[in-house]
Fold this protein.
Amino acid sequence: MVSFGALGCVGKTSLALDLIAQRQRALGSNLANVDTPGYVRRDIDFSQYLGGATASLETKLAQKMGPSPMFDYEQNVEINPAQELTEMQKNSILYTVATRRMSNIITQMKTVINVGK
């Protein structure tokens, strides 16, 4: 059954989905501006937010991102469309995993609600 811990999973999954969406926007912007003179490539490095130490996901995201994610700006880096598309595909896979996780959490919550009737 679902415990109150599941509610924490909803928050973590929701934050991960937000981060994935922001990264997809950044990668799309890179592709759209591949021929724009002076455009600086943007990206979000998930390892900054999700990897490492002992802090919870929410704490790390709040510390690093604030209300919106901080982008890594790469000066003097030529944008490679094939690399951007590859990164978009990887990001798409992460999105699929996160949405499946959220769907499972919602299904569990519905089960608990229906059992409680």
Summary: Residues 4-106 form one domain.
